[in-house]
């Protein structure tokens, strides 16, 4: 039986600067507890889709002009980014934007800012994040800007976790990282999904890795979903092999 959709994106169109049509009717769903990959090349519209979901397009002069977005059955496409965060939809942006001049731990703490909870509870959550990312515990007092790319990606995901997400929108987690670190990060994603029931919508150009860790995938080309299916199914597909995995 299909799990009920946590996130339901239905036919969205996105226009930048009032004229540039970038998403041309994108539909996708993320089931409760799912890991869904949004695949496709540079400029296909992956980042735009994630930003549409968390309503971060305004500052880019972009807007959703058609379609709808529901989260847990509630319409959210008019909702402010902070109201989405309160509902547990948390974005980890491309380029793992940490505050470089803050320590790793201070970065993590900024992720809890919207929650009105006690210090002791935040301390417990911090320990939990360190449980998932032991490297971050070692680096807790280092300036984030001086940690490695992999550690910065972990800090960015850890900060999202401090906001108690039910869904993380993860943009290009593998970008610029060595294969071994990419593997480590995806293992943690899988672990968070299995133990904390965090659902993921992740944009990736690294099709091979994404399909190994995701349950389901959508392939975007030029602002349209051109293919979708279970991760196993996509990994076996001849066109996917040829165009995205470089094997045929
Ligand atoms: P990438 O991996 O490079 O981020 P992507 O699949 O995430 O690629 P988007 O970043 O969503 O793609 O970009 C989709 C298209 O929208 C591209 O053609 C891009 O040039 C265009 N675009 C993105 N942001 C803006 C903007 N603020 N104003 C105008 N056009 C934009």
From TrEMBL:
Segments forming domain ABC transporter: 7-247
MF-aspect GO terms: ATP binding; ATP hydrolysis activity; branched-chain amino acid transmembrane transporter activity
Superkingdom of the source species: Bacteria
Keyword ATP-binding recorded: yes
BP terms from Gene Ontology: L-amino acid transport
Cell cycle keyword on record: no
One Pfam family from the record: ABC_tran
Keyword entries, A-Z: Amino-acid transport, ATP-binding, Cell membrane, Membrane, Nucleotide-binding, Transport
Coiled-coil ranges from the UniProt annotation: none
Family: Belongs to the ABC transporter superfamily.
Protein name in UniProt: High-affinity branched-chain amino acid transport ATP-binding protein LivF
Source organism (scientific name): Usitatibacter rugosus
Encoding gene (name): livF_5
């Amino acid at each position: 039986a299909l799990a009920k959709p946590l996130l339901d994106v239905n036919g969205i169109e996105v226009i930048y600067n009032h004229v540039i049509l970038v998403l041309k009717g994108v539909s996708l769903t993320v089931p409760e507890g799912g890991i869904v990959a949004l695949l496709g090349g540079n400029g296909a519209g992956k980042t735009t889709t994630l930003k549409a979901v968390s309503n971060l397009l305004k500052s880019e002069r972009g807007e959703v002009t058609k379609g709808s977005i529901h989260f847990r059955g509630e319409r959210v496409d008019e909702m402010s980014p902070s109201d989405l965060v309160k509902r547990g939809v948390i974005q980890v942006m491309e380029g793992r934007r940490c505050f470089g001049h803050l320590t790793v731990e201070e970065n993590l703490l900024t992720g809890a800012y919207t929650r009105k909870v006690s210090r002791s509870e935040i301390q417990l959550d911090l320990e939990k994040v360190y449980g998932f990312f032991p490297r971050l515990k070692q680096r807790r007092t280092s300036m984030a800007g001086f940690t490695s790319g992999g550690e910065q990606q972990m800090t960015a995901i850890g900060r999202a976790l401090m906001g108690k997400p039910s869904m993380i929108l993860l943009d290009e987690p593998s970008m610029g990282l060595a294969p071994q670190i990419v593997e480590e990060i995806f293992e943690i994603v899988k672990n968070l999904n299995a133990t904390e029931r965090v659902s993921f919508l992740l944009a990736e150009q690294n099709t091979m890795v994404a399909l190994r860790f995701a349950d389901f995938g959508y392939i975007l080309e030029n602002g349209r979903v051109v293919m979708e299916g279970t991760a196993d199914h996509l990994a076996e597909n001849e066109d996917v092999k040829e165009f995205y995995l470089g094997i045929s």
